[in-house]
Amino acid sequence: MVPKPTKYIFVTGGVTSSLGKGIIASSLAKLLQARGLSVTIQKFDPYINVDPGTLNPYEHGECYVTDDGAETDLDLGHYERFLNVPTSQANNITTGRIYYNVITAERRGDYLGKTVQVIPHITDEIKRSILALGETGKFDIVITEIGGCVGDIESLPFIEAARQLKYELGEFNTLFIHLTLIPYLSSAGELKTKPTQHSVRTLSESGIQADILVCRTEHPLPTDMRKKIALFCNVQPNDVIEAMDAETIYDVPLLMKKEKLDLRALYKLDLYNDQEPDLEQWKDFLGKLKNPTEQVTIGLIGKYVELKDAYKSIAEAFIHAGATNECKVKMEWIQSETLATNHYDERLNGLDGILVAPGFGERGLEGKINAVRFARENGIPFFGICLGMQMSVIEFARHAAGLAEASSTELNKDTPDPVIDMMEEQKKITTKGGTMRLGAYPCDLKKGSLAHQIYGKTQISERHRHRYEFNNKYLGPLQKAGLVASGINPETGLVEIIEIPSHPYFIGVQFHPELKSTVMNPHPLFVHFVKAALKFSLEKKQAMEA
């Protein structure tokens, strides 16, 4: 039996960036998956960085790390959270990586005698990357999100490669979904279609006719407006999809189902599927999310809090964990630099839980240490991630183990007690891109520990992104003072998890658990942390009422 060819869906955007291509792509993928189809999503980013690992979080948001150690766009987090399927390096390609591969091939001599050009060499490399996931034979449909806006100089090679594929793959094997904006002009009191018309025209100038239009709007699209858009943009009226602003991103799959986006896509791809999407678990999650019985306030202590996308996966993990506990998680975003003063306790009073977030560099570290101290001394549930775990080790060393000058060599190179130090293999590295300890590594949990209780097993695998580690020379003195190393990498002896048994709930992890939290599988560390915060909150209320 000849296997059916993989179908390819391209999602482009126009008018403005940040319209939500990633969420639309994820929602469509979810609906198709719920119909029993095997689906994956990939993101093509037009910037020239080889990966987002060297970008400023203020500019780009968080850097999402996959199991295979790829530093990728934050949209891959959405893909995993919606589909509950891991992604890899193959799911995120940048202009930088495309050019890097072509230039490497040219230096190797693969193009001897040829002039290397954008067409065909760059576009061929893009096409190879687009088709790579489909050629594995694992997927019925591969959705490709092309970053930026149509008309951008940077996006043109990707658009051109997609145009070529449309003709190479043949009829019914490709589909183009164009996401656009229908702005509302309050002065005129009406929605305007002209930006969409211009956007579609720009796409058609590149040789691509949009098959389906998804229109972002703040107000419902009247039938006559849908007909007008269809007429001017060469699509059928039922291929004009309304995408109104939603209460939560997790509403969007259901909104797209109502708009029949999945049915239109299947029709255009000539795929017969009469299976009704199974979204019961998803609806159950939404029901709990929207109808919480309790509320807790969690303080997120970080240095990039002005741009919440810098901690996108953490924020989403709290949404998943909150729904599991039928509890609304209200997040307080606290700039760690503001906690470096003696009055830091005033800012932290009233919190039900404290999370010290990941990050790099020395800015704001003393504020993070103060936040750890406040949580430890006041019995407030504490959760430290990556740098947050390292700061909790420093704080404990200074104020509980008698090592008053303990520090990290990231913070102070000359500290007499470097309880956190650069990993040995990192000391020889001079380049920055993709050189950290990246990807999934195993961890053995100590039986009977808090970590063991949370996970319910003794062996786990979690994703990492760091250069510094717990200095095992100090393991003895710190354990003697009451710190427990409850998670150890079996191959290197690296301390992955620390906890303080004498504290109601205190745990720090070197890895990034937020990267593995999905709607269908909320991460147990976040679920239990919210549970601990809820218990702490209820006990506070009871004490006040007594």
Write the layout of secondary structure elements.
Elements: E1 7-13, H1 21-34, E2 39-45, H2 57-60, E3 64-65, E4 71-72, H3 75-83, E5 92-94, H4 95-108, H5 118-132, E6 141-146, H6 156-169, E7 174-181, E8 184-185, E9 190-191, H7 194-205, E10 212-217, H8 223-233, E11 240-244, H9 252-258, H10 261-268, H11 280-290, E12 294-302, H12 312-324, E13 327-335, H13 344-348, E14 353-356, H14 365-377, E15 382-385, H15 387-399, E16 406-408, E17 417-422, E18 437-445, H16 450-455, E19 459-466, E20 468-470, H17 475-480, E21 484-488, E22 495-499, E23 506-509, H18 524-545
Parallel strand pairs: 1-6, 1-7, 2-5, 2-6, 7-10, 10-11, 12-13, 12-14, 14-15, 15-23, 16-17
Antiparallel strand pairs: 3-4, 8-9, 17-20, 18-19, 18-21, 21-22, 22-23
